[in-house]
Write a structure and sequence with these properties.
single chain, mainly beta, Immunoglobulin-like, five-stranded mixed beta sheet, three-stranded antiparallel beta sheet, 10 strands, elongated
Amino acid sequence: MLLCDHVTVAEGKLYVNGGGWSVTGPNPTPMGIALLIGVPWSSAGSDVHFRLQLVLTDGHPVLAGAATGGGPIAVEGNVHVDSPVGMSPGAHLDVPLAINFPALELPAGERLIWELELNGQRDSGWRLPFHTRPAHQ
Protein backbone atom coordinates (compact mmCIF):
# COMPACT_ATOMS: atom_id res chain seq x y z
CA MET A 1 0.00 0.00 0.00
CA LEU A 2 1.28 3.45 -0.91
CA LEU A 3 -0.25 6.91 -0.41
CA CYS A 4 -0.04 9.16 -3.43
CA ASP A 5 -1.64 12.14 -5.13
CA HIS A 6 -3.17 9.97 -7.87
CA VAL A 7 -2.88 6.38 -9.10
CA THR A 8 -4.18 4.38 -12.04
CA VAL A 9 -3.84 0.83 -13.35
CA ALA A 10 -3.02 0.15 -16.99
CA GLU A 11 -1.86 -3.11 -18.56
CA GLY A 12 -1.54 -4.74 -15.13
CA LYS A 13 0.76 -2.05 -13.74
CA LEU A 14 0.31 0.76 -11.20
CA TYR A 15 1.07 4.28 -12.42
CA VAL A 16 1.65 6.48 -9.37
CA ASN A 17 1.87 10.28 -9.29
CA GLY A 18 3.20 12.05 -6.21
CA GLY A 19 3.66 8.82 -4.26
CA GLY A 20 5.20 8.09 -0.91
CA TRP A 21 3.95 10.87 1.32
CA SER A 22 2.76 10.53 4.93
CA VAL A 23 1.73 14.10 5.90
CA THR A 24 -1.12 16.12 4.39
CA GLY A 25 -3.56 18.94 5.12
CA PRO A 26 -4.89 20.67 6.96
CA ASN A 27 -6.76 21.80 3.82
CA PRO A 28 -8.81 19.20 1.91
CA THR A 29 -6.55 17.31 -0.46
CA PRO A 30 -7.26 14.58 -3.00
CA MET A 31 -5.37 11.35 -2.45
CA GLY A 32 -4.85 7.97 -3.99
CA ILE A 33 -3.92 4.61 -2.57
CA ALA A 34 -1.90 2.22 -4.69
CA LEU A 35 -2.43 -1.41 -3.70
CA LEU A 36 -0.60 -4.47 -4.94
CA ILE A 37 -2.45 -7.52 -3.65
CA GLY A 38 -0.48 -10.78 -3.65
CA VAL A 39 -2.66 -13.78 -4.38
CA PRO A 40 -1.75 -17.48 -4.42
CA TRP A 41 -2.03 -19.39 -7.70
CA SER A 42 -4.86 -21.46 -6.21
CA SER A 43 -7.05 -18.32 -6.18
CA ALA A 44 -6.77 -17.73 -9.94
CA GLY A 45 -10.19 -17.35 -11.52
CA SER A 46 -11.82 -16.13 -8.32
CA ASP A 47 -12.75 -12.75 -6.87
CA VAL A 48 -11.13 -11.05 -3.88
CA HIS A 49 -13.40 -8.83 -1.81
CA PHE A 50 -11.67 -5.74 -0.43
CA ARG A 51 -12.69 -3.03 2.02
CA LEU A 52 -10.56 0.01 2.72
CA GLN A 53 -11.62 2.28 5.59
CA LEU A 54 -10.12 5.38 7.14
CA VAL A 55 -9.93 5.23 10.94
CA LEU A 56 -8.51 7.20 13.84
CA THR A 57 -5.81 5.62 16.03
CA ASP A 58 -8.52 4.48 18.46
CA GLY A 59 -10.13 2.46 15.65
CA HIS A 60 -13.18 4.68 15.24
CA PRO A 61 -14.06 5.49 11.62
CA VAL A 62 -13.34 8.93 10.20
CA LEU A 63 -16.65 10.41 9.05
CA ALA A 64 -17.12 12.33 5.82
CA GLY A 65 -18.42 15.90 5.92
CA ALA A 66 -22.12 16.68 5.86
CA ALA A 67 -21.92 17.52 2.12
CA THR A 68 -21.05 13.89 1.35
CA GLY A 69 -23.52 12.24 3.69
CA GLY A 70 -21.53 12.08 6.90
CA GLY A 71 -20.84 8.33 6.83
CA PRO A 72 -17.53 6.51 7.28
CA ILE A 73 -14.88 7.18 4.64
CA ALA A 74 -14.56 3.74 3.07
CA VAL A 75 -14.63 1.94 -0.24
CA GLU A 76 -15.22 -1.73 -0.98
CA GLY A 77 -15.68 -4.02 -3.91
CA ASN A 78 -14.40 -7.10 -5.69
CA VAL A 79 -11.41 -7.60 -7.97
CA HIS A 80 -11.10 -10.59 -10.25
CA VAL A 81 -7.88 -12.61 -10.11
CA ASP A 82 -6.63 -13.72 -13.51
CA SER A 83 -3.71 -16.00 -14.24
CA PRO A 84 -1.73 -14.22 -16.96
CA VAL A 85 -0.97 -16.13 -20.13
CA GLY A 86 2.46 -17.72 -19.95
CA MET A 87 2.65 -17.87 -16.14
CA SER A 88 3.90 -21.12 -14.68
CA PRO A 89 1.42 -22.96 -12.46
CA GLY A 90 2.17 -22.22 -8.82
CA ALA A 91 3.39 -18.67 -9.52
CA HIS A 92 2.45 -15.87 -7.16
CA LEU A 93 -0.16 -13.55 -8.74
CA ASP A 94 -0.17 -9.77 -8.35
CA VAL A 95 -3.42 -7.84 -8.48
CA PRO A 96 -2.86 -4.06 -8.81
CA LEU A 97 -5.63 -1.84 -7.48
CA ALA A 98 -5.89 1.95 -7.75
CA ILE A 99 -8.22 3.84 -5.41
CA ASN A 100 -8.57 7.61 -5.68
CA PHE A 101 -10.47 9.94 -3.38
CA PRO A 102 -11.60 13.51 -4.05
CA ALA A 103 -10.44 16.28 -1.74
CA LEU A 104 -11.29 14.92 1.69
CA GLU A 105 -11.86 17.17 4.67
CA LEU A 106 -9.90 15.39 7.39
CA PRO A 107 -9.48 16.20 11.09
CA ALA A 108 -6.48 18.48 11.57
CA GLY A 109 -3.49 17.48 13.70
CA GLU A 110 -4.39 13.78 13.79
CA ARG A 111 -2.80 10.45 12.99
CA LEU A 112 -5.10 8.55 10.63
CA ILE A 113 -4.89 5.02 9.30
CA TRP A 114 -6.18 3.39 6.13
CA GLU A 115 -7.11 -0.19 7.10
CA LEU A 116 -7.43 -2.87 4.43
CA GLU A 117 -9.54 -5.99 4.73
CA LEU A 118 -9.35 -8.80 2.15
CA ASN A 119 -12.03 -11.50 2.04
CA GLY A 120 -13.01 -10.59 5.61
CA GLN A 121 -9.41 -10.94 6.88
CA ARG A 122 -7.31 -8.23 8.50
CA ASP A 123 -3.57 -8.10 9.04
CA SER A 124 -1.41 -5.63 10.95
CA GLY A 125 0.67 -5.21 7.78
CA TRP A 126 -2.38 -3.98 5.87
CA ARG A 127 -2.47 -0.61 7.63
CA LEU A 128 -1.28 2.65 6.09
CA PRO A 129 -0.83 5.46 8.65
CA PHE A 130 -0.41 9.15 7.89
CA HIS A 131 -0.72 12.49 9.69
CA THR A 132 -2.62 15.69 9.06
CA ARG A 133 -0.97 18.99 9.87
CA PRO A 134 -2.47 21.09 12.68
CA ALA A 135 -5.01 23.75 11.74
CA HIS A 136 -3.57 27.20 11.15
CA GLN A 137 -3.83 29.32 14.28
